[in-house]
Design brief:
- The protein has one domain (2-69).
- The strands form 2 sheets. A two-stranded antiparallel ribbon has the order 1-2. A two-stranded antiparallel sheet has the order 3-4.
- The longest helix has 36 residues, at 31-66.
- It contains 1 helix and 4 strands, in the order ββαββ.
- It has 94 residues and is of the alpha+beta class.
Length: 94
């Protein structure tokens, strides 16, 4: 990652590679059970789900840059950081 001098934030990119959604050319192993149109529908549903996950990851990454760093570990504690569903980070011993 490189740093943007104007904003002081890191530039990053998330990339999703996917096949062009064409009937008979995507999810070809599923065509036997779903047909070409059904396989296309599955491909599109999975693609939409992946895009939703990437949007969430990008939003979470922006909030991480604004959140405070986890507190230091106590002596004798292994460095382990737990991440909760709301994006907060907490150091724990284990």
């Amino acid at each position: 990652m490189r740093s943007s001098r104007a904003t002081g934030t890191a530039d990053a990119a998330l990339v999703l590679y996917a096949r062009v959604p064409r009937p008979g050319e995507v999810k070809t192993r599923m065509i036997r059970w779903l047909g070409a149109r059904g396989a296309l529908g599955l491909h599109l549903a999975l693609l939409e789900d992946s895009l939703r996950l990437l949007r969430t990851a990008a939003r979470d990454a922006r909030s991480w840059r604004r959140s405070p760093a986890p507190r230091p570990a106590s002596p004798g504690c292994r460095n382990r950081v737990a991440i909760s569903g709301n994006g907060s980070r907490e150091r724990s011993c284990g």
